């Protein structure tokens, strides 16, 4: 997810202590480094180690990475930060692959968050893997997981759907495809379009479906709005919104299946799974209370033993 700055506020980041890197050398390979989505302190020590020791630095936004390194006292030295983004990937990938072939270590950072999540790093990682190079991850901040954590929506199963298409026809088809997926659905959205998509979702998915709008996560003006799609569409109507937005929508709630359907599903899974696992799977698939499904699964298992 893109961000215009890695800082929460200047006062918080001004006194960030200089990083003391791990003295051990960095092995050759491509390192995908997660960077903060807001507060600059949301970076791992390992990420700072990699940024301090990598032979080659590449970033979706070179200014953002340089500023982050400056905040944490990570010296750039005589290294150049290469820009790698959607517009120059075809030209830049061969240069980075040659560096890997020469035994170099490369750190790639997206503008904010975890690389490859709505980010141009995918093709670079795929090419490096195809050429037999080591590809490693330095995990850290992610807008998707941060939003899911604070949303209050079920987290046992979720789908990241990225940005909805801007064209009306393509957007309608895409939303129809994911509407009934039994998982919490997560989108990135522009502040200029958040009211539009909330209105469309309320109209086509039902105004009573639960949703959450997360804005400016980990930043100074962080805001989390929870409610039904209808209520949120009303709340954002005519409102001037700024910042990075993650939209989460609860899974669709279907009519409760009859007992025979539940029993058939349970028997299918009980054939090769424990009572506990079979009940958990069926309860999640059918959006039923796990305790009730477990009791039924236990009954079926006991009947089969008799």
From TrEMBL:
Presence of the UniProt keyword rRNA processing in the record: yes
A single MF term (Gene Ontology): rRNA (cytosine-2'-O-)-methyltransferase activity
SUPFAM superfamilies reported for this sequence: Tetrapyrrole methylase
Reactions catalysed, as given in the entry: cytidine(1402) in 16S rRNA + S-adenosyl-L-methionine = 2'-O-methylcytidine(1402) in 16S rRNA + S-adenosyl-L-homocysteine + H(+)
Keywords: Cytoplasm, Methyltransferase, rRNA processing, S-adenosyl-L-methionine, Transferase
Enzyme nomenclature, EC number: 2.1.1.198
Sequence intervals crossing the membrane: none
Cited CDD domains: RsmI
Domain annotation Tetrapyrrole methylase: ranges: 30-233
The protein's enzyme class: transferase
RsmI HTH domain mapped to chain residues: 258-300
Keyword field contains rRNA-binding: no
Chain residue ranges for the region called Disordered: 1-22
Protein localization: Cytoplasm
Coarse class of the protein's main subcellular location: cytoplasm
Family in the record: Belongs to the methyltransferase superfamily. RsmI family.
Biological role stated in the UniProt entry: Catalyzes the 2'-O-methylation of the ribose of cytidine 1402 (C1402) in 16S rRNA.
HAMAP family: 16SrRNA_methyltr_I (MF_01877)
Protein name: Ribosomal RNA small subunit methyltransferase I
